[in-house]
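Example 3.2
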Amino acid sequence: MAKSKKKKKKKRGESTSGGTMSSLRGGMKALTGQGPKKKESTGGKIVTYLLLAAAIGLLVYRLMR
């Protein structure tokens, strides 16, 4: 008869093999743009363009002064 092996309980703070490296790899893929593409919401686009316009406006103001 084959005995079923029980899964060992993971202690707190103990990582599984490859868990940390996998998450780092996934983060690097997302950072470099190789991961899955996420569509930016309309509100996010508006905020992005407002911040970009503010930065350009501040740069022009500082250069013209």
